[in-house]
Write a sequence for this structure.
């Protein structure tokens, strides 16, 4: 028996996906779900909705810390390279001028700080978001295509301690969504969509 | 609160957006340019023209590599010719893209949203063109790796105290950061294109580039933070880059180059020429693709105002340059100044003053800023003027130094011109390809803008009821 089928027997659903027409409805729904004790949930929107991440229980983005670290490392590396090559590895005594001529190392050190911080911000953001992630169970839901266009979604995962197929669906229905979708946990064939 | 569909009762006071736009309508409109609307015939003609120029570049570079930089007009005493002029010109053009996307983001100027994407693309392509010139000008481009600090058997390292080395690092950093900024901004839009594409292959390509973006609230939060941080980093970066470009001149002791006003005046000049280029590009773009509702008259007006302001700073730079040359009382400086104004290159000098200082004063008039064809012509005049500025700075400072026996003149050759036109071809080719395959306006930021403006009347009426 192939593993995909085995898995399909074991995990029936990734969870429920409720679809909303406006960001305010989604925000209210997320707050209601969080208040009801759901934790393994997430919201999806076609643009940054302020307060939405907090509503699904997100507390701290580490991107700024990673960026600072990248900047500090970049600066140390940039200055270190210039210092070491000019004053240690290949010192050139030109009329007794100081080998560690730090003012002339400032421009490159500055650029290295910017480069290190920027690279850390981008790569850190992607790593913390666990991207690239080419496939996700939510992509099984055809309606989810509109999450990148004009619709707003709330997902509650089946591995949430509060999750119950019937009760969670009833709860979501109480939030008055536009639609509720079942999310298959494994890839669905394209022609079946 | 926020109502879907047409908000017809909304007053047309948000002139940066036509009332009645919804998040669905902007998504449709912008993505249809790439996905469904088909390719206009004009696009093929424009690409064919640009691509011919690109082939001219290929030819020029081939001849250059075969015969060396002797095919250009550079010689003693003018060792820096078109290559440096064009390098500075292209880098400067690129700077408006970063200014629009980063500084205006930090200043919460929401009118930037319609123009930041292609301004950023413009930055990338302009920096690509700029980067070519030092590479070609070294004469032996296969040795360009000497710039990199690597442990060689010679035991030597690059000279990090040299402004040319600073320049290489600054422009390299700038290109890298601009690319990251542009790509990060594109990710949500690539996901939109993935989800709207009908064809499997199109879907796969956009899907791969979108890296599985699905608009999770948590992802958006980190994304936004990273984006704002990048903007905050790009702002000092863009200023440092053109400052360092000006150091290429100012750190030397050549009269006409050795000036403390150079860094700020170069940065202002970069912004000036960059905004001129954004206008040159956005005016035809909005006409061809019918984007007048997104890139409105208000945008053109704002850009014209920024152009006027930066142009005045540039004019002040000229004034100070001339004043200090006179007030400093140094013979060589004074001679350089008079030679610049009345010597063999006087035509270029006065054309530069006309293009950069005199003619742009028309922008003071609201009528002129509202006249789109005239604005287009003015933007091209500023582009030419800024090119002439660099030409005058580079050539007139070099061709007559303190020793009259070593005076000489510089004349550009066919290959100088063909390389320059060729990079314009490279720039335009990349730009046309970009317009065809990627969303030319940031869709996700446009949605945010629409949403914020949709909330406004609701909030207002609530306020008046209480």
């Amino acid at each position: 028996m192939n593993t995909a089928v085995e898995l399909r027997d074991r995990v029936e659903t990734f969870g429920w996906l409720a679809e909303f027409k406006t960001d305010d409805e989604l925000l209210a729904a997320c707050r209601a779900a969080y208040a009801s004790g759901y934790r393994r949930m997430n919201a999806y929107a076609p643009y940054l909705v302020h307060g939405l991440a907090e509503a699904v229980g997100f507390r701290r983005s580490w991107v700024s810390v990673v960026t600072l670290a990248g900047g500090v490392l970049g600066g140390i590396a940039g200055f270190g390279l210039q210092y070491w090559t000019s004053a240690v590895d290949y010192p050139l005594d030109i009329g007794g001028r100081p080998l560690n001529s730090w003012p002339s190392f400032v421009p490159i050190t500055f650029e290295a700080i910017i480069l290190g911080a920027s690279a850390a911000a981008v790569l850190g953001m992607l790593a913390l978001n666990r991207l690239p992630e080419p496939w996700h169970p939510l992509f099984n839901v055809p309606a989810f295509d509109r999450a990148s266009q004009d619709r707003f979604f709330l997902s509650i995962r089946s591995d949430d301690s509060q999750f119950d197929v019937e009760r969670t669906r009833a709860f979501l229905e109480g939030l008055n969504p536009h639609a509720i979708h079942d999310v298959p946990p494994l890839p669905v064939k394209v022609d079946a969509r | 609160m926020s109502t879907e569909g047409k908000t017809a009762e909304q007053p047309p006071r948000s002139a940066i957006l036509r009332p009645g736009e919804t998040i669905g309508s902007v998504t449709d409109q912008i993505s249809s340019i790439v996905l469904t609307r088909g390719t206009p015939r004009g696009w093929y003609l424009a690409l064919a023209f640009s691509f011919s120029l690109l082939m001219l570049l290929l030819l020029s570079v081939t001849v250059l590599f075969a015969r060396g930089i002797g095919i250009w007009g550079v010689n003693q005493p003018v060792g820096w010719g078109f290559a440096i002029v064009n390098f500075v010109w292209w880098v400067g053009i690129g700077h408006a893209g970063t200014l629009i996307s980063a500084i205006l983001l930090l200043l919460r100027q929401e009118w930037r949203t319609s123009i930041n994407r292609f301004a950023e693309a413009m930055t990338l392509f302009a920096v690509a063109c700029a980067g070519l010139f030092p590479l070609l000008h070294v004469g032996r481009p296969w040795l360009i790796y000497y710039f990199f600090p690597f442990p060689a058997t010679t035991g030597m390292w690059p000279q990090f105290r040299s402004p040319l080395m600073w320049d290489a690092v600054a422009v390299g950093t700038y290109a890298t950061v601009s690319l990251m900024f542009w790509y990060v901004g594109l990710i949500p839009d690539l996901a939109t294109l993935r989800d709207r594409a009908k064809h499997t292959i199109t879907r796969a390509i956009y899907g791969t580039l979108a890296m599985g973006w699905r608009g999770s609230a948590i992802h958006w939060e980190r994304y936004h933070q990273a984006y704002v941080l990048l903007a905050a980093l790009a702002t000092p970066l863009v200023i440092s880059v053109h400052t360092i470009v000006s150091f290429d001149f100012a750190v030397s002791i050549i009269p006409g180059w050795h000036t403390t006003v150079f860094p700020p005046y170069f940065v202002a000049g970069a912004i000036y020429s960059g905004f001129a280029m954004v206008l040159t590009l956005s005016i035809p773009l909005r006409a061809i693709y019918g984007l007048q509702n997104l890139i409105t008259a208000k945008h053109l007006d704002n850009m014209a105002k920024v152009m006027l302001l930066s142009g005045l700073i540039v004019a002040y730079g000229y004034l100070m340059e001339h004043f200090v040359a006179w007030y400093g009382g140094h013979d060589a400086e004074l001679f350089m100044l008079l030679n610049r104004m009345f010597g063999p290159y006087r035509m270029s000098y006065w054309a530069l003053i006309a293009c950069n200082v005199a003619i742009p004063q028309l922008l003071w008039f609201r009528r002129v800023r509202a006249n789109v064809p005239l604005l287009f012509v003015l933007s091209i005049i500023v582009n030419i003027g800024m090119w002439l500025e660099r030409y005058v700075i580079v050539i007139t400072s070099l061709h007559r130094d303190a020793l009259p026996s070593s005076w000489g003149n510089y004349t550009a050759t066919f290959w100088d011109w063909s390389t320059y036109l060729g990079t314009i071809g490279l720039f335009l080719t990349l730009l046309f390809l970009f317009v065809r395959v990627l969303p030319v306006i940031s869709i996700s930021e446009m949605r945010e803008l629409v949403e914020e403006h949709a909330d406004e009347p609701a909030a207002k009426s609530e306020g008046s009821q209480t």
